[in-house]
């Protein structure tokens, strides 16, 4: 994915995904993939042969499941190693994926899709609000009339509800230490992840995720031409309330 500036963002680093990929995509997240794909199919009313654009597809966790269910899936990601893993997973499962290395800040396509998705809290990491909104526009522009856009992300509300100053756990052969703190008036959430290896290796990464309210993003999607935007706290239509785990937006054109 080509960068919009000479400055390289952390999410463009191959090393980051090599080090943190096994932590992010642990066994639990792989096991939930079929259920998430089923929810996407249901929420978007997809049928075999329906077209899906998976924005930030990563290693193909959801793309492969959707393709296995008969969808025509195009996955976009900025990291070639991730796309290579997605390709290998698709080949292992005997399904076809169209995979594109592209930057969502600049990505455009004349093709229209029945559904576009951005899942697993991969929105809000750019330096500016303008870049985030450009990504939102580029992810939704390819949705055809009558189509659906599904966004799963941490919202300002869910960040506050579920806030913790940090935790530690064992995963993928590492001891993982995390530290969290709000940025400004909850405009963002600063996260620091420290990996400690049994051989004494220490790897650190710190980043800020910009936090938007449900109303912020709902209004933006309405401005982008969607007729309705439903806000839920999970893919099962759970109400978006004081018990919300995450935010899921389901927008219909």
Brief write-up:
The protein has 253 residues and is α/β, with parallel strands linked by helices. The protein has helices at residues 14-24, 27-31, 33-43, 61-68, 80-93, 129-140, 156-161, 214-223; strands spanning 51-55, 72-77, 98-101, 113-118, 143-153, 166-171, 174-183, 188-197, 202-210, 228-232, 247-252. Helix 3 crosses helix 4 and helix 4 (61-68) packs parallel to helix 5.
Main attributes?
253 residues, alpha/beta, seven-stranded mixed beta sheet, four-stranded antiparallel beta sheet, 8 helices, 11 strands, 30% helix, disordered N terminus
Task: Tell me about this structure.
With 253 residues, this protein is of the alpha/beta class. The chain is built from eight helices and eleven strands. Strands 3-2-1-4-5-11-10 form a seven-stranded mixed β-sheet, sandwiched between helices. Helix 3 crosses helix 4 and helix 4 runs parallel beside helix 5. The chain is globular, with a radius of gyration of 18 Å.
Rg computed from alpha carbons, rounded to a whole number of angstroms: 18 Å
**Averaging pLDDT over every residue, what do you get?**
91
Q: What structural class is derived from the secondary structure elements?
A: alpha/beta
Please state the overall shape, judged from the principal axes of the Cα atoms. Answer: globular
Strand residue content: 25-35%
Q: Tally of extended strands? A: 11
State the low-pLDDT regions, or none: 1-6
Q: Number of DSSP helices?
A: 8
The helix/strand order is HHHEHEHEEHEHEEEEHEE
Q: How helix-rich are the residues, as a percent range?
A: 25-40%
């Amino acid at each position: 994915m080509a960068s919009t500036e000479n400055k390289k963002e952390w999410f463009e680093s191959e090393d980051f995904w090599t080090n943190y990929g096994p932590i992010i995509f642990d066994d639990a997240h792989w096991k939930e993939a079929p259920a998430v794909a089923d929810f996407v199919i249901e929420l978007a009313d997809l049928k075999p042969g329906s077209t899906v654009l998976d924005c930030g597809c990563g290693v193909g966790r959801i793309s492969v499941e959707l393709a296995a269910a008969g969808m025509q899936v195009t996955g976009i990601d900025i990291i070639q190693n991730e796309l290579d893993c997605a390709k290998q997973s698709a080949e292992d499962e005997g399904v076809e994926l169209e995979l594109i290395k592209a930057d969502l800040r600049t990505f455009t396509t004349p093709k229209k899709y029945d559904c576009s998705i951005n899942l697993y809290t991969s929105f809000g990491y750019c330096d500016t609000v303008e870049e985030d909104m450009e990504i939102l526009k580029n992810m939704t522009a390819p949705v055809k009339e009558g189509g659906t856009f599904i966004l799963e992300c941490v919202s300002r509300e869910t960040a506050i509800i579920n806030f913790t100053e940090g935790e530690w756990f064992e995963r993928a052969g590492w001891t993982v230490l995390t530290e969290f703190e709000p940025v400004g008036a909850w405009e963002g959430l600063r996260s620091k992840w420290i990996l400690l290896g049994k051989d004494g290796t220490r790897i650190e990464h710190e980043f800020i995720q910009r936090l938007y309210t449900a109303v912020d993003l709902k209004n933006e999607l309405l401005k982008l031409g969607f007729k309705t935007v439903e806000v839920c706290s999970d893919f099962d239509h759970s109400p978006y309330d004081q018990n919300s785990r995450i935010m899921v937006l389901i927008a219909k054109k």
